[in-house]
Amino acid sequence: MVNEHKVSDVNKNIEMVLEIQDLKKHYLLRAGMLSKKKRYVYAADGITFSINACETLGLVGESGCGKSTVGKTILRLIDPTDGIIKFRSVDITNLSRFELRKYRREMQFVFQDPYFSVNPRMSIGSIVGEPLENYKLARGQKKDDIVEATLNRVGLSSEHMEKYPHQMSGGQLQRVGIARALILNPKFIICDEVVSALDVSVQAQVLNLLMDLQEEYRLSYLFITHDLAVVEHISHRIAVMYLGKIVELTDRETLFVTPQHPYTQALLSAAPIPDPTARKERTLLLGDVPSPVNPPKGCRFNTRCQYSEQRCRVQEPKLRETAPGHLVACHLHEAS
To answer: Do 54 and 220 contact (CB within 8 A), yes or no?
Structure first.
């Protein structure tokens, strides 16, 4: 059984760890020799949210909506096109690699594929201990002792230090990725689909581990996933993303009980129920997801929305607060 967070556990008055303002990442497409018009992929197009200390913000949406791009841009693994990234009140948006280095210790990333995120020629001990050497924090026996302690904390033993990635299971290797992120004592970790490649039983173990580590080390998470069941268990607040935009953001209970955006309602209606006798009404979306190269004018969801009207096709709705702490980008919920 997966442990559940309680929204009330998050103190709204504590330190804000991360603040994102109008973050954009547009990729320039290569045009033909005779083409004069530049074309872009609007992977992330005006993302705004914040994360407090010891809080988990779930970022959920369909594949290709830009979730992973947001995560990589926040950590400056890729540079943003526009917007502001503040980490612990410091604007890191335009810092050089040298200036960014001291903040990188406190911001870590756990990748989706545990096999492709490690060097297959390095031992597990070397993989987990490499950050300590990069920051000149420990070498030799001291480094080995820290690595062993960190591996023990994520459910592995000293015997795994001499093994190589191909000798580990997917669940074990994902724990290695968590240990590597944890070893520098970060404040903020981005988890990008970290359980999507694992068996359900292993998923529960990894989720419980992440929540235990959060409580112990007061970590903040941006938890990126497409799995609503997973995000419901681990998140304090949830942001729903569609085609490069956040369309709804609120606390977990509110989102699952009273979703307001039509896209969120459709997502929740499509989620399977672990009861073969249960029945619920499905909200079927029209058509396919538009291309991020040529997104629809106005509301990006208007081509698939059953409530679409003329205003939706010409005017883009802003993310507005419809209730305390509940933000929605939809003309249906704008004040008349």
So the answer is: yes
